[in-house]
């Protein structure tokens, strides 16, 4: 393999990495993925808004359409949604592979599996600096027992929530990380059109629990929290009055874990290194959905890289990527971080009151007409300011 052949090396073969590669035109790109198969292991509930699906290029792998949600607090429940399809449930393994196949149709993109990338440390300098002689980061790639050192014009860290690439370049600093645990279960008799969302701090403190139908008979049930997620999930499945009844005959057929980053970094670009997707914190803090923001940002990243390389622009030009994706999503993420803090500091009594408030004030139709899974700040602020009298 001629590693010096590549203008851009992307670390991570998830959706963000592959969509970035797909959108880099006329320059040689290598995507490296540490696992032996794109799309595994699963770390996702696979629920994507219809807008998100469009942004991802309508990949293969959809297993169910979703029209709304039942939202439960300890003692109340509301049903939002109607006949309109608002989201789709995906088999991520199929989806991720399909996106990778699409990227590979771009003739300048190669994919290397079982290849782990790591920023080269400059031993002669301070440990936090990793520049080579051109002030560029270099990459050490371990593939099948062979080690290669690469100095491409650009490195993209699309390496997910933990982003060791971002951390070793000191871009990704301390941020809140939630741990997710999820079971796919068969033999569940469920209305396939609606997801079930439980906000109940007897079972989960810092996030929510979901039951997502994957079509007839099959669901994903999972939660994220700051600690002990698997035991909390088992407790929920066995003891929650509604869930334990719904899942009484359910048999687990897939277990998955994953991490969710909350919040972004000061910059997602440093010299010739760019971060995209979860590594850059492109995630909705309220729902944990990252696929829509990641896909849209990956396109921006690919376009900026193409311009930079084609027009031989100064390296500072790459910072436009940071500006542009934050123009799209910073406001939503900032709102989500604040809203989450308020929501998860509430006790179950207050959460019951919120659902009761929505019912009493006839807000369900308003939510159905105006709600947007990807940009919840607009409707939430409208409800909060008109009914309670302040804005977040
Ligand atoms: C429990 C859970 C449920 C979720 N549910 C949803 C949902 O329903 N809807 C939604 O939109 N989002 C959801 N998300 C978030 C979603 O999964 C992520 O936002 C999305 O996968 C991010 O894509 P990505 O390409 O940035 O990262 P990833 O999909 O994590 O891909 C990163 C890739 O990089 C590879 N990699 C990492 N380090 C290296 C390295 N050093 N060298 C080589 N390869 C490397 C990894 O193997 C991986 O394949 C969920 C997350 C969790 C944890």
TrEMBL record:
Give every FAD-binding domain span.
6-327
In terms of InterPro entries, this protein maps to: FAD-bd, FAD/NAD-bd_sf, Geranylgeranyl_Rdtase_fam, Geranylgeranyl_reductase
Entry's Gene Ontology molecular function annotations: FAD binding; oxidoreductase activity, acting on the CH-CH group of donors, NAD or NADP as acceptor
Q: Which Pfam families match?
A: FAD_binding_3
Q: What is this protein called?
A: Geranylgeranyl reductase
Biological source species = Methanococcus aeolicus (strain ATCC BAA-1280 / DSM 17508 / OCM 812 / Nankai-3)
């Amino acid at each position: 393999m001629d590693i010096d052949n590549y203008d851009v090396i992307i670390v991570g073969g998830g959706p963000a990495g592959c969509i970035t590669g797909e959108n880099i035109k006329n320059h040689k790109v290598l995507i490296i993925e540490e696992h032996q198969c794109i799309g595994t292991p699963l770390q996702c509930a696979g629920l994507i808004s219809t807008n998100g699906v469009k942004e991802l290029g309508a990949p293969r792998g959809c297993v169910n359409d979703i029209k709304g949600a039942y939202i439960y607090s300890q003692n109340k429940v509301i049903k939002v949604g109607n006949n309109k399809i608002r989201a789709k449930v995906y088999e991520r393994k199929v989806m991720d592979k399909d996106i990778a196949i699409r990227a590979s149709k771009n003739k300048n993109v190669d994919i290397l599996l079982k290849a782990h990338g790591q920023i080269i440390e400059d031993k002669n300098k301070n440990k936090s600096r990793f520049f080579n002689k051109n002030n560029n980061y270099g990459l050490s790639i371990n593939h099948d027992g062979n080690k290669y050192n690469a100095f491409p014009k650009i490195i993209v860290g699309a390496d997910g929530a933990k982003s060791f690439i971002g951390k070793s370049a000191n871009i990704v600093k301390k941020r809140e990380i939630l741990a997710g645990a999820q079971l796919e279960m068969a033999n569940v008799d469920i209305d396939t059109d609606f997801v079930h969302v439980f906000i109940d701090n007897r079972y989960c403190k810092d996030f929510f629990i979901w039951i997502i139908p994957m079509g007839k008979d099959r669901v994903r049930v999972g939660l994220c929290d700051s600690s002990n997620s698997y035991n909390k999930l088992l407790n929920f499945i066995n003891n929650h009055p509604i869930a334990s009844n719904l899942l009484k005959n359910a048999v687990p057929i897939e277990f998955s874990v994953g991490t969710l980053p909350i919040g972004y970094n000061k910059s997602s670009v440093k010299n010739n290194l760019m971060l995209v997707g979860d590594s850059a914190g492109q995630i909705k803090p309220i729902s944990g959905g990252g696929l829509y923001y990641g896909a849209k940002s990956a396109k921006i990243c690919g376009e900026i890289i193409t311009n930079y390389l084609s027009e031989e622009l100064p390296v500072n030009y790459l910072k436009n990527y940071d500006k542009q994706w934050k123009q799209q999503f910073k406001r939503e993420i900032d709102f989500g971080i604040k809203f989450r803090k308020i929501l998860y500091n509430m006790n179950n009594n207050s959460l019951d009151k919120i659902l009761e408030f929505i019912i009493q004030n006839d807000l369900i139709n308003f939510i159905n007409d105006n709600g947007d899974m990807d940009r919840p700040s607009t409707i939430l602020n409208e409800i909060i300011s008109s009914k309670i009298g302040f804005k977040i």
